[in-house]
Design a protein that fits this description.
It is a single chain. The chain is built from 13 helices and 14 strands. With 380 residues, it is α/β, with parallel strands linked by helices. The strands form three sheets. The protein has a six-stranded parallel beta sheet, with helices on both faces. A six-stranded parallel beta sheet has the order 8-7-9-10-14-13, with helices on both faces. A two-stranded antiparallel sheet has the order 11-12. Helix 8 runs parallel beside helix 10 and helix 10 crosses helix 11. It is elongated and about 65 Å long.
């Protein structure tokens, strides 16, 4: 059943900023079709960044901005919402549109369960009144809520719509693409062949899922893989903590461009502490592929120069699979243990298998096996 509330009802808003979400795919698809990226629409590095950009829009125009996000990003908006936009501070109003992953009563991935349970309480706690939209919400209900929200905005307060699964409907016309030739799974396969029994930290989304399946395909032991199913943008920091405390282990972190952008300050911290046993790889397809494919700003960045400026010892950008194989061979030519902090950016296509599976182990089981693996490496 299609929602009676079409995404076009948000057309009254003139400025949009946010981070894409799968439940908000109709909204994101509509924005990509009709709202040009730039002056009227900013795909932000993280949700707090989106709030701050939206605040700037309000200050410049006096008009209400719309910020969209998955509920997993509520933690990122907490600081600017309570210390910048709150009526007791600057009183900068905005509308939030929040995808409700982990909605109680619906099956979802483990990283969304607790966040789903606390979504409504979280908004209550940070002082944002909300209305839940599901597939039975009528446009009349929506517009009545809009009138109420307009009164909140006048007093410097913000408001939110919580969007349930299948509540919005829109068929996107444009599809974001790039010209990169490397298939991400092929790149990961080459990396894992070289990594073998090293420590691997994989970022959330399809990268972790592909690592899990490729390990099985190669017949390799996966106990040394930490599959970061949540906390987008923090895998490289997890890897740093491991590398500093496992100096005799080669630690590989497989990052995504959207994840790296979300908390890019982590690269400066990694560079400052310069663990010589860490290889940081960003698989860059310039898209938020796991949540619909909307572009990131990574297409215009030189991650390698950023890494070098942050203090990494080496940095390379790879655009074809043969160069990747040669690079990996060179990195581990004499020993499995690097003697420098390495960075590698691999430009990949926007593609993944329709039948890509998910780990069958729980996060707790992954953690237990991983910690036992690290313990045994210390002993050996």
């Amino acid at each position: 059943m299609c929602s009676k509330v079409k995404v076009e009802v948000f057309d009254k808003y003139e400025f949009f900023a946010g981070v894409p979400d799968s439940l908000l795919a109709p909204l994101c698809g509509w924005l990509y079709d009709v709202k040009e990226l730039g002056r009227n629409h900013v795909v932000a590095a993280n949700e707090g960044n989106a709030v701050a950009v939206a605040a700037g829009y309000y200050l410049a125009t006096g008009k209400i901005p719309l910020v969209y996000l998955q509920n997993s990003g509520l933690g990122n908006i907490a600081n600017p919402v309570v210390s910048l936009t709150n009526p007791k501070v600057y009183g900068i109003p905005m509308l939030f549109v929040v995808g409700w992953r982990g909605e109680p009563g619906l099956k979802d991935e483990p990283q969304h369960i607790f966040q789903g349970e606390i979504t409504e309480n979280f908004l209550d706690c940070i002082g944002i009144e909300y209305f839940v939209i599901d597939k039975n919400t009528s446009e009349e209900e929506f517009y009545r809520t809009e009138e109420h929200f307009a009164e909140l905005f006048k007093s410097g307060k913000s408001a939110a719509y919580i969007i349930k699964k299948d509540a919005l409907h829109y068929k996107a016309q444009k599809i974001h693409a790039n010209d990169y030739s490397i298939v991400r799974e092929d790149a990961i396969c080459e990396i894992l062949k070289m990594a073998e029994n090293d420590v691997v930290v994989a970022t959330t989304g399809k990268i972790a899922r592909e690592v899990y399946e490729i390990r099985k395909k190669l017949g390799q032991n996966s106990d040394g893989d930490f599959l970061t199913v949540g906390s987008m943008g923090h895998s490289s920091s997890v890897a740093l903590g491991i590398a500093l405390n496992q100096p005799n282990s080669h630690v590989w972190v497989l990052d995504g461009d959207g994840a790296a952008l979300m908390h890019m300050g982590a690269m400066a911290v990694i560079g400052k502490y310069t663990p010589k046993n860490l290889t940081h790889i960003i698989l860059n397809n310039a898209a938020h592929e796991s949540v619909g494919g909307m572009p990131t700003v990574a297409d215009g960045l030189n991650f390698g120069k950023i890494a070098l400026a942050c203090g990494y010892d080496t940095a390379l950008t790879i655009t074809n699979i043969d160069d990747l194989r040669a690079c990996l061979m060179k990195m581990t030519k004499q020993t499995k243990m690097p003697k420098q902090l390495n960075f590698l950016e691999i430009k990949t296509s926007i593609s993944s298998r329709a039948d890509l599976g998910r780990p069958t182990e729980t996060p707790q089981e992954n953690r237990a096996k991983f910690m036992e693996f690290l313990k045994n490496k210390i002993v050996s």
